[in-house]
Each structure stands twice: as C-alpha cells, then as structure tokens.
Design brief:
The chain has 535 residues and is of the alpha+beta class. Helix content is 33%, strand content 12%. The chain folds into 3 domains: 251 residues, no CATH class; 72 residues, no CATH class; 112 residues, no CATH class.
Amino acid sequence: MLKGKFPCQAVCNKLRVDELPPELSLLEKLEQILIAQRIVFEKIIVMPKGQQRKIKGAICNVPVECDQTCKILPRPPERSGIIMLKLKRKLEFRGHVYFQAVRPEVVLNALNWLKVNNPLYTKINVDIGNIGRDLTTSQQNDNVSDEDNSLLDSDMTNTSSNEQSINDNNETLANGTMTDRVSPTTSDRESSNDGNTPDNEEQDDPLNNFRSPPNETCLQSIIPDYPVTVQENDEVSSGNEVYNIAPGENKHPVSFMMDKNYCEELAFPVLFPKGEFGNTVERDVELSPVKYFNARLLHHSARFATNPEYLFFAQFIIEQKKVSDSINIALKKIHGQPLRASQIRSIDAQNLQNLICQDQVYLFLRQISGSPPYWQWFMYEVIAMVKQLGIPTWFMTLSCADLRWPELFQIIARPQGKNLTDEQVYALSYNERCSMLNFNPVLAAKHFQYRVETFFTEVLLSNANPIGKIVHYALRIEFQMRGSAHLHALIWTSDCPKLTSETKEDYVDYIDQRVHAHLPNEDQDPELHELVKTY
C-alpha cells in the first residue's frame, strides 16, 4: 500500500461478491443447475461413517440452453406445485446425476431475475405460454403433511419408486405436444417398475465398461410420497411420478482451459448473480488461480466454501492449470526443445516405451499434490534424509478428532449468527455434528491445519522439548476413509543416543522418559485422566 499498489487479493481487484437476491437464495441444488448455462458433471460420492463427500472421475463441462430446459418442464401435481425431477446424462440411462424435488415457479422467477440483472442472460427467452397455470403457480394444500413439505429440505436422492415413461411410439407429453422420439431436452415419465425393463438398457454405450454402477450418485437420502391428485384428463395420478431430463445430451463437452467465455459465472449463477468477476476476467493486478480460489473459499459469506460442487470445480481448475503449464517444460527438459503432438506421434514405439519405463513422461505431475509422481518425489526426499540423518527418532501419527472439538462447531456456527455453548455442542447428535462438518469442509480442514501447526510450534518445538530437541521432520497428510485429515510424521532429534548394542539401555531410558502408556490417576489429576480416557 505504501508503494501505491493494492494486494492481488483485494476486493477492488475485481473480486467483489454480489449480494444474493431472494429469487436465487430460495433455489435448491437441482434448481440451480436448471438455470445454469453450463452443467458441470461431476460424480460426488458419499463416504462411509461421517458421510463426507469425495469426487470420483473427471469433471465434464457441458454447455446447455437453460431457457429450452425450462420451457419443457413437466406438469406438477396441481396442489403441491412440486415435481420430482431426475437430471441424467442421457435419457436412456437408468442412473441419474441428481434427483430432487423442483418448484417450477421458483425456477422461472430466478431465470427472469437473471435475465434482467445478469448481462450473460440477456439473450435468454423465457416463454411459458404453453405451460399450464398450475405449473407456474404454487398452491397451498391443507392436506399436504409436514412430511411432504420437507421434500425441498432433502438432498438429491437415489430412491427407486414407481415411475412412468413415454414409449417410443407417439405419446402425449405433459405440455400437450406429440413426439415420435424423446428429444434430449424433453422431460418424460419413466416406465413403471413392473420388472419388464431390460437389464441391457445401457449396454449400447461403449463407455459403460469404464463406468461405475449407476447407484453411486450424489447425496443420497429418502423422500416421502406425493399426495394423490387428479389431472385434467380425469385420470388419477399415483402421486409418485418422477420426470427425467437430459439437457446435456448430444451436446459437446468443452475443456475448461478452452472455455474462456465466463465458464465459472455460467456454471454457478447463484454464486455470481450478476455474472461478474470470475476466474478468467482481466484484472489490474495479476492473480493466479490458486490465490483466486483461495480468496473465494475464504470469503466471509461462506457461499463458495459450503458448495461441494464448486470446491471440486476449483480443485480441478487448479490441477489442470498446473499440468498445462508444466507439461511442455517437462518435454523440453527431456528432448532439449518443445515438442508438438505431431512430433510425439512421430516418435517410434521403442523410444516412447523407454520414456514411459523411465517415468520421464510423468515428471510434470510432480506439481500435483497427491498424485503418484508427487508421492514418489516425497519418498525419495525421505530416503535421502534417512541416508544423511540416520534412522528417525520418532514416528508419529495425528488423527483428526473433529467430532470431539467443541470449538470447531462453535466456529462453524458463528457465521450463521449462532453462539453455541459447550453444553449445546455436547448435546448435538452424531448426525448433526457430521452434517455441520460436511457442509463446512474448508473450515474443518483449516482448523486441523491450525491445530497441527500450533501443536508443533507451541509444544514439540518449544523450549520444553517434550520428545527431545527436534532438528528435522517430514510430514505427510492423508485423508481417512471417512474423509477427515490424518498426519504421519518422521522426527529426528539431536539428543537421542544412537541405537547400538552398547547404548541399548540408554536408548530405552530416553524413550521411557518421554513416552508413557498408562491412565493417570483420576483423583490426583482428573482433567488429564478425562483427556486420556477420551482421546
């Protein structure tokens, strides 16, 4: 600031976050996708125990026409104003990407607001003249139970219920039109689950050999049934209709590196209501993708940090950018000059195989944390330390006991205007604690990092030297099956006697003075007794 420059992560460097209008704040997850002009297909799987989320496979960016999607929304039950909608990659697939209750009225209101306030939506035409009034107007129903009203609060589901579909022959759609074949953006009712559905329904697709089972979808839970209603044709509805839609079918995916036209703003309109200040915008002070997403995830509103789709999107962009920047450098180091794809093809098979066997073609992946080349490099570093420093004195493992940290839940609740006491935190159920952690993974990870750094600086590296005078250490952070962080450490101390046959007793005394494996006396030190018993 004294030099007349502002930091690259300053708000004035086109990093402003617009206020979220009520029309967009009411949208559920699938409703947000319906108004997006880019659908980011990513396979998010719920992990066991803590129900935290992880991503499986690559992320696919598909441009879609959201106005065409909203035009053919099916007719909901007249009383509830809600429809059950499945978002699929292809209509012929039995599996789905998202499954949730959708309110057409809320979706159309959000789209109309974006058309007026977002310059990226000015060319969107919303024509609902061919949709019945009961589709665009939610009506109150005294007969709808509280359980039915909780539909919108539940996440995407993978429930198998009785569904109806349009056959390949001429059938009347919800909007009254006739069709010979279901179009990619036409919603249809799935066929009733009467056992006649062929098992080889998706076997025509050549990619099925590389796909996981279709039931590994996003955010699974259970939903109640619909109230039974009567449609205009006087046919009694079962109340369990589930509609399918595949707006990305027959669309060509676009690489994130090639999609420079506001990809982030079009994929997440709720995070960027006015379509401004995304990752690719030109700024006065250059901002790297790492620092850009760091600023977004640490924003005080927690709008970005609590969106799991955006978290994985940010990770994918950062890693792809690192690979793109380093791949040409790696090839230049090998051959002494830049190589093009055509030159790679001209290399004979034997030379290319030699490069693969010598791991030369994977060197650029060392910049990607968690990749095999990255951990191979880390292993070589540790082996070099062992050769130079000798066998490490300590091997330490630190697990993340996040469910037992009351201060973490107090930190998570504070931005929401809640000041939880220790008693209120202890009164939370296991599912409530897991839910709070799952929707705030950034805060949970940062809190673990803070505790590890504090433990090293204030305890292990302090003048007290509880485990000896530390001179070197190597850390590796992993993530357990439940999704929480996990740390392994190799520690070298300078005051530990070298282990030989002559110094064996001195070595044992050194260890015994610093490591104890017993439960402290409850009467003499009740606090320490409780801590050891708990952790």
